[in-house]
Amino acid sequence: MGLKTAQQIMDGAWTKVNEQTGGAAVRWPAAEGLMWFNNGMLEIVNQMPSANSKRAAPTVASGSRQDFSGLNITDGLQWIDVVCNIGSGGARGRPIRKAERAWLDDNMPGWHTVTAPEATTWVHDPRDPKAFYLYPNPASGTKIEAIYAAAPTAATNPASAWPLDDVYANACEAFILYSFYSKDATYTKNPQLASAYWSLFLSMVGARGQNLAGMAGVGDRKAGGA
């Protein structure tokens, strides 16, 4: 969680469009600014799932397929990683490695029905972002450690805390400005500015994504002995 508030981020957008700050805006009122603020947070996580990642230690459901509903997670958007098995005392146990489903399908056609005390492998398809598969099916009551992208908690008033890291605050401001100028009103509509702010938003989030991917790649190569 960052140190900013919804008010501070909305005030930044209002200042750029020469509006009154502190909720006194006329062309884009406070309620509208708050709506775009909440939409901006959600779009940031949509573009960059790790922007609001959470750790969970759920008890697995029966069968190979696991999803947010079956694991009693209500705010999940997509899975990022499955780390390891969790022991009865809460300690991290055997790691769970990611694999391609095609490898399991080709080499172990019956893998969906194999059972064992712990899982060793997880499979995820981004086309089905809210589910993943475990191999083998762990015993009933087994817990795992998993990381997932969560839907941000919507702000209910301008004093609400900014739930993401502050590094994403400027991107949210750009999204608010894009939304301001997308409004179909004679005194606000400006497709050119809306397009410019949308591009700015995407570049802010995308540039961070590229930087994070680059750093992760360096770490993976070093871990592999490069």
What share of residues are in beta strands? 15-25%
Roughly how many Å apart are the termini? 35 Å
User: SSE order in H/E notation?
Assistant: HHEEEEEHEEEEEHH
Q: Please, how many domains?
A: 2
Strand order of the largest sheet: 1-10-3-4
Mean pLDDT: 89
Q: Report the oligomer.
A: single chain
Q: Number of DSSP helices?
A: 5
Number of strands: 10
Roughly how many Å is the radius of gyration? Answer: 22 Å
Describe the structure.
By secondary structure, the protein is of the alpha+beta class. The protein has two domains: 6-50 and 153-223; 52-150, no CATH class. It has five helices and ten strands. The chain has helices at 6-16, 30-47, 101-107, 169-182, 191-223; strands spanning 53-56, 65-67, 76-86, 92-95, 97-98, 115-116, 121-123, 131-135, 137-138, 143-150. Strand 7 (121-123) and strand 8 (131-135) form a beta hairpin. The chain is elongated, with a radius of gyration of 22 Å. Mean pLDDT is 89; it is low at 214-224.
Write the layout of secondary structure elements.
Elements: H1 6-16, H2 30-47, E1 53-56, E2 65-67, E3 76-86, E4 92-95, E5 97-98, H3 101-107, E6 115-116, E7 121-123, E8 131-135, E9 137-138, E10 143-150, H4 169-182, H5 191-223
Parallel strand pairs: 5-7, 6-9
Antiparallel strand pairs: 1-10, 2-8, 3-4, 3-10, 7-8
Short description:
The chain is of the alpha+beta class and 226 residues long. It contains five helices and ten strands, in the order ααβββββαβββββαα. The C terminus is likely disordered.
Structure keywords:
226 residues; alpha+beta; 2 domains; 37% helix
